[in-house]
Amino acid sequence: MAVPKKKTSKRKSKTRRAANMKVKPIMLTKCPKCGEPKKAHVVCSFCGYYKGKKVLDIESKLDKKLKKEKKQEAEDK
Ligand SMILES: [Zn+2]
């Protein structure tokens, strides 16, 4: 049976493990609907479209956000 000749140093094993933990860059594509950069295979967060269909109702979400902000402003005053 093959036996390692020397103990692997901490440095060596750590660098070996670190090589597999590399963070991949996020792949961005252009949205065909609005042209904004978006992640591939993910619903566009600017217009809410995916594969030419409307999936998310972004406008209503924005309205809710604005209402929340206004409420908070009113509470602050
Ligand atoms: Zn879009």
Could you characterize what this model shows?
- With 77 residues, the protein is of the alpha+beta class.
- The protein has a domain at 29-76.
- 38% of the residues lie in helices and 13% in strands.
- The strands form two sheets. Strands 1-2 form a two-stranded antiparallel ribbon.
- A hairpin with a 6-residue loop joins strand 1 (28-30) and strand 2 (37-39).
- The structure holds zinc ion.
- Zinc ion is lined by residues 31, 33-34, 36, 44, 46-47, 49.
Task: Give a quick rundown of the structure.
The chain has 77 residues and is of the alpha+beta class.
Structural class, judged by helices and strands? alpha+beta
Bound molecules: zinc ion
* Percent of residues in β-strands: 5-15%
Count of helices?
Answer: 2
Shape: elongated
Topology:
Blueprint: H1 10-19, E1 28-30, E2 37-39, E3 49-50, E4 53-54, H2 58-76
Antiparallel strand pairs: 1-2, 3-4
The structure holds zinc ion.
Zinc ion binds at residues 31, 33-34, 36, 44, 46-47, 49.
Descriptive tags:
single chain, 77 residues, alpha+beta, two-stranded antiparallel ribbon, elongated, binds zinc ion
